């Protein structure tokens, strides 16, 4: 055990280590994984003076309660999150998008997310965790990544390899915007669906189901009519692709998705909307709006420019 470490008092819900994910492994059935909300992941690292590809703790709905042992260190939480910092006998409410300094014996209690799903905790240093295929990202469905591919657990000790010398306190004014219309490109099996089915997809409203996780988001709503075949030969999948199984309810593939699937694909979520899509909690309403490839590329470039501009402000 090192002199600087975290102890997990309560792991929270679906708490894992994540980074930028792993590339070029789809051909052997390994998805990209990585932080679900990339912008919040990057901002968290920048707030504590980490390299932007440093591992963070990602949590969903309820986060971890952590006790820190060691010398002074910075941490920051991003997302729409309610958390508390306990210093000796004092407990203060923390603010997202602001770094804090903690020291030996202090505790961080991530109580919950607020009408969103994922939050991120970055700590100013390098965690002593294992990497697999150049990434620490945990995929619990396949037991891939650091921590033996499993969620963090109660009583677990997480050591630091090193902590940052730069402990400047930083903050940024940032608001997570909500989105109702998710922009999509036509899928490779778009013509499997009737004209009425296509109109249903673009004009009607869908509800995010409770049956959603890092692998996929199931939607409930009016049935999307298929006039060709509700099954196809298994084909490759990508993050954001929208499959429609026989029950007519769409499933959006997310970061830990399977790399092949046999349901017809009606569309693919434009990358520009992915971060906000994954933050839509069960019960949220979704509408889809069609855009073409050139518009999707321009929008994503603007999104990346905006992200870099935010990081430069920290």
Summarize the structure.
This protein is α+β, with helices and mostly antiparallel strands and 314 residues long.
SSE arrangement, N to C: EEHEEEEEEEEEEEHEEEEEEEHEH
User: What percent of residues are in strands?
Assistant: 25-35%
Amino-to-carboxy terminus distance: 33 Å
Counting structural domains, the number is 2
- List low-pLDDT spans: none
Count of DSSP H/I helices: 4
Oligomer, anyone? single chain
* Percent of residues in helices: 10-25%
Number of DSSP E strands: 21
Walk across the major sheet and give the strand order: 7-6-9-4-1-12-11
Keyword list:
314 residues; alpha+beta; Cyclophilin; 2 domains; seven-stranded antiparallel sheet; seven-stranded mixed barrel
Descriptive report:
With 314 residues, the protein is of the alpha+beta class. It has two domains: 5-163, no CATH class; 181-312, Cyclophilin-like (Cyclophilin), CATH 2.40.100.10. Helices cover 14% and strands 32% of the residues. It has four helices and 21 strands. The chain has a seven-stranded antiparallel sheet, with no helix packed on it. A hairpin with a 3-residue loop joins strand 14 and strand 15. The longest helix is centred in the C-terminal third of the chain and has 20 residues, at 293-312. It starts with a strand and ends with a helix.
Lay out the secondary structure.
Blueprint (H helix, E strand, L loop, with lengths): L4 E6 L5 E3 L19 H10 L8 E5 L4 E5 L3 E6 L2 E7 L2 E4 L5 E4 L4 E7 L4 E6 L1 E3 L29 E7 L17 E6 L8 H9 L2 E7 L3 E5 L14 E2 L4 E3 L7 E3 L6 E2 L3 E5 L4 H5 L6 E6 L2 H20 L2
Parallel strand pairs: 13-21
Antiparallel strand pairs: 1-4, 1-12, 2-3, 3-10, 4-9, 5-8, 5-10, 6-7, 6-9, 11-12, 13-20, 14-15, 14-21, 15-18, 16-19, 17-18, 17-20
